[in-house]
Design a protein that fits this description.
CATH topology of the largest domain: Neuraminidase
Shape: elongated
Largest sheet: 4 strands, antiparallel
Structural class: mainly beta
Organism: Paramuricea clavata
CATH class of the largest domain: Mainly Beta
Keywords: Disulfide bond, EGF-like domain, Glycoprotein, Repeat, Signal
Strand order of the largest sheet: 12-13-14-15
Order of helices and strands: HEEEEEEEEEEEEEEEEEEE
Protein name: Extracellular matrix A-like isoform X2
Radius of gyration: 25 Å
Number of domains: 3
Pfam families: EGF_3
InterPro entries: EGF (IPR000742), EGF-like_Ca-bd_dom (IPR001881), EGF-type_Asp/Asn_hydroxyl_site (IPR000152), EGF_Ca-bd_CS (IPR018097), Growth_fac_rcpt_cys_sf (IPR009030), NELL2-like_EGF (IPR024731), PKC-binding_NELL (IPR051586)
Strand content: over 45%
CATH architecture of the largest domain: 6 Propeller
Length: 210
């Protein structure tokens, strides 16, 4: 007897019925949890998700959608205040300076440790990543009040970019002419094998919102 075909089973309406010899099995659909006889929709918004702090999470079957709150724009995983004024950060031989693109104001923030610093802006956490002295990688607050050293022996970074959501540095290894990824959480450094055949790499950047 095929209970599934005859619709005489007791599977939940959000479950799949699979006929077996002398019985049947019930399995909840993707996006639902339970024993198959009772299936409840999983609320992805209630747990960890990628929606920005200034976004609304809408649960869907098996997934969720992120949309920026009123007064913000973006794709939901990153939302920018519409009232914010773009600020340009740049490094010279002794300081990191800022330029207010609306007011035209210049201000000196703080002294660098080296005149050869590279800067990468972390949009997700609103901070600056700085590589200086050919070895030192640091995290800097936007007002320059706090500099946190992340690594001191990274002497092979030619150019780098930063994924602030995953805390990963992607950089061009100066000696190997290869792209590496450095996880700043566990400090694991690995070459990206899929890009091993690329040569003469000049620069790189990452779109963390895609």
């Amino acid at each position: 007897i095929d209970e599934c075909d005859r619709d005489t089973h007791e599977c939940d309406g959000n479950a799949t019925c699979t006929n077996t010899r002398g019985g049947y099995n019930c399995t909840c659909y993707s996006g639902f949890s339970g024993d198959g006889y009772v299936c409840e929709e999983i609320d992805e918004c209630a747990g960890e998700n990628d929606c920005h702090d200034n976004a609304n999470c809408t649960n869907t079957i098996g997934s969720y959608n992120c949309s920026c709150n009123d007064g913000f724009e973006g794709n939901g995983t990153y939302c920018q205040d519409l009232c914010q004024v773009p600020i340009l950060y740049y490094a010279n031989s002794s300081t990191i300076d800022t330029y207010n693109t609306k007011a035209g104001d210049l201000s000196s923030n703080f002294f660098l440790r080296s005149p050869d610093a590279q800067l990468v802006y972390d949009k997700h956490n609103r901070q600056i990543l700085m590589y200086a002295s050919g070895t030192t990688l640091s995290r800097v607050t936007l007002d320059g009040s706090n500099i946190t050293t992340l690594a001191t022996d990274e002497e092979h970074i030619r150019r780098f970019t930063y994924d602030g959501r995953r805390n990963i540095i992607y950089y061009i290894h100066d000696a190997r002419d290869a792209i590496h990824m450095l996880n700043l959480t566990n400090m694991q450094d690995n070459e990206i094998g899929a890009l091993a055949l690329i040569s003469n790499i000049q620069d790189l950047d990452i779109d963390v919102l895609n």
